[in-house]
Each structure stands twice: as structure tokens, then as C-alpha cells.
Amino acid sequence: MIIDQMDRLAAGRTGVLPQAGVYVGTGLLEAAIFALLLPLLRALVGGDVARALVLLAAGAGVALVYGVVLYWADNRGYLIGIKHVLRPIQHRLGDHLVQLPLGWFTKERSGQMSTLLTHDLQMVMNMPSIFMRQLIFSVLTPVTVAVLFFVVDWRVGLSFLVLTPVLYASSRWMARAVGDGHFEEERAGAELSSRILEFAQAQPALRSANRNESAWGALGEAIGTDRHATVRTLRMTGLPMWTHTLLVQSIFALVLVTAALVLATGGIGVADFVFVAVLALRAVDALNSIGQQGMSIRVTQNALDAVQRVLDEEPLPQPETPNRADGSGITFDHVSFSYDGERTVLDDVSLDIPERTLTALVGPSGSGKTTLTRLIARFWDATGGSVRIGGTDVRELSTEELMSRMALVFQDVYLFDGTIEENIRLGRPDADDEQVRHAARLARLDEVAERLEDGWDTRVGEGGNRLSGGERQRVSIARALLKDAPILLFDEATAALDAENEAAVVEAMHELARDRTVVVIAHRMSTIAAADQIAVLEDGRITQLGTHEELVGLPGRYASFWEERLKAQGWHITND
Ligand SMILES: Nc1ncnc2c1ncn2[C@@H]1O[C@H](COP(=O)(O)OP(=O)(O)OP(=O)(O)O)[C@@H](O)[C@H]1O
User: Fold this and answer.
1) CA 550 to CA 509: how far, in whole Å?
2) Ligand 1: distance of its center to the CA of 346 in Å?
3) How far is the C-alpha of 72 from the C-alpha of 26, rounded, in Å?
4) 61, 137, 315, 549: most buried by Cβ count inside 10 Å?
5) Ligand 1 atom with least separation from CA of 494
6) pTM
7) Where exactly are the transmembrane stretches of this chain (predicted)?
8) In a domain, 285, yes or no
9) Angular region, 293: left φ>0, alpha ψ -120 to 50, beta rest
């Protein structure tokens, strides 16, 4: 049940079940108000003003208590939702997420996590308050009404109940249809949002290639699917909703007709008839809202399932007694790797990267350079063989030890919306201002800061969008410089950098490479030529290994690669 699942996910008693009890109690207060209405109406119609006044006072008193209790119950529900449901689930998710392999955090997953942590969990948070109240009242109110109708006259009570089994079946049908429809709509909505984002982000590339129409095609399709999902939901829910409404109205009519007949035959008085009419209206309201409850439950259930799926993800195994790395040399020992367990991306790779040397990885796109580099940082674990740092298998190092040994400068640099300084400080949070400035200067970020209106205090915008790609990479280099770790994993930008960024990056890179073990996915000829060793990757295997001098004269991939680069550069120079 949903409450059990909440307790389980929040890893403790959330108090949601007692909260259900609170709402039942509140519902009973509402029932007491209804119950007082009958003698009140009878006293009024019967001209017993004194009794009517007493009952009115009693009714007003109960209504006041009801109002206060309802307010308190809702507040209690909100607090439970925030403190005992949302917060523990967020903490559990957070604790679990930091143990997941870095490779798990793809862009798509980040998007899903953001929806889960904000929108979906918001729905879960509302479960112990509004959703639960509506749910309990939509059952309790009709039950109270049925009991009171029997008190008035058994025939009226029966007329209210006679269609109940059919109504129950129809409400389940409607709830399921609304829930399914909503699920489909959400899915189509999520697809549409990501297409819109993709369309917006791809604008420069699409316009330059004059291909806007083809991208609009994908977006148009997503809009179509979204519209289709909405229409489908309307169709899916149309009949059940119509049936449900018809049934509710039939019950209303049946009750009124029965009550009128009983009135006509003298079974009940006018007061009782008015009472029945008022309560029947209230019951119609409650019965009509059942479809809405189905949706709330379904959405909450979906969110809880999504949380469960994340918690079920295998964390990165941690060593029981971590070892220490003796030095910063890196060894790949017959390493194989596959992302999906089917296609081998790295195949029996063995490579020795001695301490304080620079190894350049080159090879065609998709040959496995990024994967190889990321196995060092344990984005994933090797499927076969082992990766060792300072002679110790990376799986035997604690995450803190592993991460403290390396700095990562990858292309997908993430900058948060703080100042340049704050972003650099992420490299070593306890660094003093002078150390941060020093790292920034080495990455030539002082030139950038001078240009910005508020200098060092300028915020870089969400994801660093106020900086150019090259400038963002320089911030990440400065982070690495500040961290001062013995191993540097570097992915040179493939995108062309302007001259100023190029010079700054190359200079900072030299500074970084000094005295460190560097593994670089290399694209620049100067980096490749200066490397202590070059590993050529093709189809997940190292096919050539040596220095530039050794490899350039040998027939093979490297020589042709170098030739191509030279030609490209020659072409570039003549066009300048
Ligand atoms: N997260 C992933 N899930 C599944 N397959 C992946 C993933 N990342 C990469 N691959 C696949 O693994 C292979 C190697 O990719 P990798 O990114 O390591 O190559 P690369 O040499 O760095 O390429 P590039 O120079 O284009 O960045 C490719 O076929 C790629 O499609």
C-alpha cells in the first residue's frame, strides 16, 4: 500500500497512517454537523424556535471546532509531508546518489532526477495533507450521508445505496482511465520538453547547416504525440467519466424522487425532505471528485516507484578495508569494458603510464579514449582486468582517496551560477584567496575577470553561460591547478578555440603537466608531439604505442593521422 511504501522509502515511521486517523476524526466532525442539521430543520419547520436556537448554537460550535481541527490537521499533514516524508526521502536519495558510479549521471538521467526531486516529490509531499484529506472525505462523506438517510427513512437510504456497487465499479474504471491517461500525458510532456530544449540548443548548428526544418520535424512530431496523448486521454476518460457523472446524477435523482414520494405518502416531513436534498448535493460533490483522487494516487505512486528505482541502482562497491596508492603511476592490466554487457568498447587493453609522464591518447571518434580515461576515475568499473594507481587496484581505494589523487578537466565542464572565484574554489574548498587568485592567474582568467563588469565578483550564469567554451575550460583548469592532485585527466577541447583561449589553455596545460601524471585525450599537434608516450586506440584496442619520433616513421594509423593533421594545418595556413 502507498502508506507502507512511503514509510519504507523514508526508512521509518512517517506518521502518515496516524494522519489518516486524524482526517477520519475530522470527517466525523463534519458528520456531526450533518447530523445536527436534521433536528435543526425539524425544529425550524415545527416552529420550535428555542430548540432551533440551541441546535444552531451547537451546530455553530461543532462547525467552529471542525474548522479549527481541519486547519490543524492540514498543517500537521504539510509538516509530515515535508519533515517526515520529503526530507528523509531526499536525504536517502542524496546519500544513495553520491555512491552511484559517476557514469550513471548522464544528461538524460540528470533531467529525470531534476523532475523527480522537484515536481514528483512535491506530489508525494502533498499526500499526507490535501490528497489524503480529499481521498478520505470522498469516502467518508457518502458513508455518513447513507447512514443519515437511513435515519430519515429506510427507503431513502436504500435509494442512495442501490446503485453503489455500479458506482464503485465505475469510479474504479474512471480512476484507472484518468491515471493511465495522466501517465501517458506526462510521458509525452517530458518528451516534448526535452525536444524543445534540444531544438533551442541546436539552433546555431541547425541554422548554419540550414536544417531547421528537419529538427522542427522531430519537435513537430513530439508536439503531435503530446496533442495525441491529450486527445487520447480525453477519449479514454470520456466514457468512464460520462458514465460516472450519469450514475451520480441518477443517484441524486433517485434519492430526490424517493424522498418526494415518501413525503407525499406522509412517511417523512418537509424538514426531512429539505435535509435529504441538501445532503444529496453534498454527496454528489464528494462522489464526483473520486476521479481526481485516482489521479493523485497514481501520480504519487509513480513518483514513489521512481524513487525506488533510483534506490535500487547498484552503488559503486566500496572496499571493506581500503588500501592506499603508492605513487601516481597508472596501469591498465588486460582491461576490457562494455557499457551494456554486449558490445565490447575496450578489449584487453594493457598500458603502463609511469609517474610524472604525459600520455597522449589518440584515435578515431568512438575508439574508446574517453571510456579509458574515465575508468581511471572509476566512472564505471572495468568489466575484465584491472586499473591500478600506484600499484593498487582502483576498486581497493576509497572514493575519497581516489578522488583526492586526481583532477579532471573534461569537456562537459559544469559551472554553477556563482562567481569565477567560487567556481575555482570547488577544486579545494579550504584554499585561501591568494591561492585561488594564483590558480586563476595561471589559467589566465584575470584577463576574463578584467573584462567582466563586476570583475571577480561577476556571476558566471547558470552552467557558466556568460563565459565562452574556452573560458569555461580555463575555469576548470584553474580548479585542477588549485586542487594540485598528482594525476591529471585532461580532455582537450575538440571545438576550435580562439587564439587567446588557445594560448591560455596551452600555457596552463603545460603548467599543469609539470610534475604530474597526465593522461590527455589529445587533439593538438603540440600536445601530441610533446607527449612522453602516445597510445593509439582503434576499436577499443591499443594498436600503437611509442613516442612521436618512434611512431611517425612507422606505417600505421599514427603516421596517417599525423599526415592528415599536417595537411589540415597546411590548408589552414594558406587560408589565413
Ligand atoms: N554512456 C555510454 N553508454 C553506452 N555507450 C557508450 C557510452 N559512452 C560511450 N559509449 C560508446 O562507447 C564507444 C567508445 O566511446 P568513447 O566516448 O570512449 O570514444 P572516444 O574515442 O572518446 O570518442 P570521441 O573522440 O568521439 O569522444 C562508442 O562506440 C560510444 O558510442
Assistant:
1) 24
2) 10
3) 10
4) 137
5) 25
6) 0.69
7) 20-41, 53-73, 135-152, 251-281
8) no
9) alpha
Question: Does 138 share its domain with 158?
Answer: no
Would you call 514 exposed, middle or buried from its count of C-beta atoms within 10 A (0-12, 13-18, 19+)? exposed
Helices 164-201 and 290-312: crossing angle in degrees, nearest 10, is 50
Shared domain check, 555 and 428: yes
Q: Kindly state whether residue 416 falls inside one of the protein's structural domains.
A: yes
324: left (phi over 0), alpha (psi -120 to 50) or beta: beta
Give pLDDT tens digits for 531-575: 899 999 999 999 999 999 999 888 888 998 888 888 876 654 333
For ligand 1, atom 9, name the residue with the nearest CA: 371
| Residue 288 is assigned to a structural domain of this protein | no
* Total count of domains within the chain: 3
Same domain flag for 376 and 303: no
Dist. CA 512 → ligand 1 center (Å): 26
Residue 379 has phi, psi (to 5 degrees) of -60, -35
Instruction: Say if 425 falls within a structural domain.
Output: yes
Q: Cell 471546532 sits at which residue?
A: 65
Instruction: Indicate the top mutation candidate among 102, 367, 521 to test ligand 1's pocket, ranked by most ligand atoms within 8 A of CB.
Output: 367
The ipTM, to two decimals, is: 0.96
Instruction: Give the DSSP per-residue string, 174-213.
Output: HHHHHHHHHHHHHHHHHHHHHHHHHHHHTHHHHHHTT-HH
